[in-house]
Amino acid sequence: MHWLTNTRTSYDAVAKGYAAQMRDSLTDRPYLRGMMTLFADLVRGAGDGPVADVGCGPGHVTAFLHELGLDAFGIDLSPGMIEVARHDHPGIRFEVGSMTDLPLADASVAGLLAWWSLIHVPDDEVPVALAHFRRVVRPGGVVMLGFHEGNGTTHKTNGYGGHPMDVYIHRRPQARVAAWLHQAGFTVEAGISLDPTGRLPGAVLFAR
After folding, report:
1. Domain coordinates in residue numbering, the chain
2. Residue of 62, 76, 106 lying closest to 12 (CA atoms)
């Protein structure tokens, strides 16, 4: 799957620049922090346990979940991102892996987060990823997905310090992602829009 190779190579190239840009990205985003706090509360309410941050990038979100008291660990396609994450957050576990072939045991996590990491996955591969999410999340476990909301795809050819990239960014309506979750065996409990009239509208879905 060439999109996997291109995504991995692209994020290896921009790992340090991306980390520098995103390191403090939650500081001035109270709604995002609030949703992560809610996610942590839901995981604890479901019995607590390990939480997988799938597509964790440089690990800043994984670290925030850790600060909230969750047993969070990160998985990312890019070895370069994992190297940065391990350097920046040495007390947290990070592993290289793909969400379309998730290296986790069945029913092994109490919660799973995919925070703007499904945006590079083509439509026909999203159900594959969600099937893996369903496989690894234990019954009653919580899933939170964040993504660009809307329609259409753009091709990103450079970024984060001017490095060349070759990734496609997919924007999707909440209803489409919710339908995919339902087809994968999840129950969607809430959907929240972020900056709905802004330049980059986003959405977050909570499911079990």
Report:
1. 2-207
2. 76
C-alpha dihedral over 45, 50, 53, 56, to 10 degrees? 140
Give CA angle at 181 (180, 185), nearest 5°.
Answer: 115
Contact 103, 123 (CB under 8 A): no
Sequence-ordered list of residues with C-beta below 8 angstroms from that of 100, at least 6 positions apart, any chain: 1, 4, 121, 125, 128, 129, 132
Report in angstroms the alpha-carbon separations of 198 from 36, 94, 169: 22, 33, 17
**Residue bearing tokens 């980390």:** 19
What is the rounded CA–CA span in Å between residue 113 and residue 61? 9
State which H helix or E strand residue 18 sits in: helix 2-22
| Res. 26: pLDDT tops 80 | no
**What dotted CATH number matches 2-207?**
3.40.50.150
Type of residue found at 186: F
- What amino acid is encoded at 160 in this protein? Y
Phi, psi of 191 (to 5 degrees): -135, 135
Percent of the chain with pLDDT over 90: 78
- Nearest to residue 136, comparing CAs of 107, 162, 168? 107
125-168 tens-digit pLDDT: 999 999 999 999 999 999 999 999 999 999 988 777 777 888 88
The DSSP bridge pattern shows strands 202-207 and 137-148 to be antiparallel
Evaluate if residue 1 carries a pLDDT over 70.
Answer: no
Q: How many angstroms separate the CA atoms of 22 and 16, rounded? A: 10
